[in-house]
Known about the structure:
This protein is an alpha+beta fold. Helices cover 46% and strands 19% of the residues.
Amino acid sequence: MAAIGAIRKHGVLLMVIIGFALLAFIVGDFTQLTNLFSDKYTMASINGEKLNDQYSREYEENTALWKMLYNKQSLEENETYQIHELTWQNLVETKLLDKQLDKLGLQYSDEMIEAATEEMMASLRTNQPNQLLAQMVNMMAQQFGVENALNIITNIEDYKGVEGAEDLYNAYKAVQRFNITDAKRMHYYAMAQGSLYFSDKMAEQVAKLNKSTMASLAILNPYAPVFNDMVPTVTDKEMKDWYNAHKSAFNVMENLRDIDIAVFPITPSTEDLKAIEDSVNAEYQRFVAAPSLVDFNLNEEKGLVDSTYYTADDITVDALDSLIFKRPVGSMIEPFTYQDIVWYYGKVYGSEMRPDSVQVAFLVVDYKTAAQNPNGTRTKKQARAEADSLNQMIKAGANIFELLPNYLAGRQAGDTTLWVPERGSIPSLYNEFVHTANGGTYVYDANSAFVVYQVLNRTTPVEKRQFVVYTTEIVPSDATVKNIKNNANTLAAAASNADELIDEANSKGVQILRGTNVRAMDATISQLPNCREIVSWAFTKDVKKDAVSDVMNLNNRIYAVAAIRDIREKGMQKFDAVKTNIENQLKAEKKTAMIADKVNEELSKGASMQDIAAKYTSQVMDSVALTFLAESYMNRNIEDVAIAKIFNLAENSTKAVAGQNYVYVANVNNFTAVPASTNYVGEKAALRSIVVGRGRNESVILQGLRKDAKIVDQRNMFYAK
């Protein structure tokens, strides 16, 4: 009974516990239950909408487009970072625009998206095509021809899910998505900017304030050595007051880390360099003594001898250019190092005047083969005889174009000639073209066909050379790599926090790199590329401030040991976290004010502007045109706060005014009122610039939308999948 009474007493609580336990059982376990009520496992969400799958899909599409446009099979780390940023910014903007357009009753329906897509496709045949789509078609046209490329794009949905066409389809979907975002952006920003209204009365008041002058100026740099003895002080109260008055400036929009990195470059030792040099010289002596290039390549397991002909423009290593093209054929290329990363040696063994491409017409006489041409009607012997007969007919004067209709082999009737480039062609076939006179013929034995070529034309021949160049990378030995790693491990074991890492590194002469405001998706820290492993570690949930990492290997180039100097989570930063920054800023402002006061005291005692400029290592600029409402770049990039002070000076008097970063010694002539523009167009433009910034309307609007949105950005989880 006591037990039943206890259950009754805590009945409600017990039912809640049982209910949650049952729910946990249904969904799997308590860890999964936690996922339902938190963003812990959400990679990306906007206003409560989880976007993990959408982000991953769009990243994949953008990657496919990037590879196609830049003709790449794989990407560098900095490129993947750019694609991540492009994907995220586009996704955020689209979701925020969708919300705003929805409020205005302007949702983009399937019909509107289809219409925008059709318009994009139609633009390809106009003088103003969609630029991304046009680039994509141009890349495809290099392989398939323009009409085929257009046909593929027009029927792109036929390639969805087709093996081997995934990248093509994804690239198109990226272009389509960007096109829709552009349409949404155009509609919304046009309305948003159009809603910004300035009355004529307001513009009239601004016009009354506007005036211009000609001034003499000397600009003083507070950080010049001459001002080193001026050291301002700042109290805690001043810093706290400034913090409270400017709290919005310390609202961090995303999680940030300050990371110190001790770097151990994986480079060869002196002993390694000597051993590599000796090895290269010994190999070169065997090369010189070898009876032929073929024998040397065979004995040294170098593969086939390169028989390609190269122009001087093909040589990308400057030192090789003169060694190959400015010395006689047969010259040896003695061993030399290039940028301390590779040894070169070799030999120039051939030279010829050759065209870069040859124009040919060709007849295809196919024959039956089980693999390539099972539907062929000729035997190989029959095809050979027919090809030889055609060859003799052309040599006797027959017109190859009159013979072509029966030997197109699936080509279009207009595809009767072809410009064959040397680079990328079969070397033996191209050599036959080069050594065949214009009008001459050559029969080529291809797979399942004999091809009768007639050479029609060629580009102007240029000198090309044949050569062999052998390379040996300058890399550290296994023993050296092991020693470098041991040194890194020793440092990691000796440091338990960021300060100790710095101290230990300094005592051992190890280089330290310091990254500030590192973001979760960054791939570079303080100009050190390919730091993805360090960044991922720094943003791991259980890594705290002052944590020291294990040794990391960055692309076999550097061993690194990292430490977390500071952690700033998204949201309002506490005073202690930003105190140093505030102190530095206030000291800088006080220093400019102190310098201005000192200069004004000297001016009051009779010093001229020229005296001040000479004393404080500056120069006097005469006849500087200034206008109150002009953009900064039109006012010699003088800070706006200083412009306001200069236009409040008495005419024809010299005085120093403090800006945020510089001190300006100014003498202004008579102020002249600037006539108001017709319908106050200029004044309203100035007001617009003051309110939203010149040329930054869209970014300011988007920034406001982002500030009001709930955005979860934990895309570092992307790398943990």
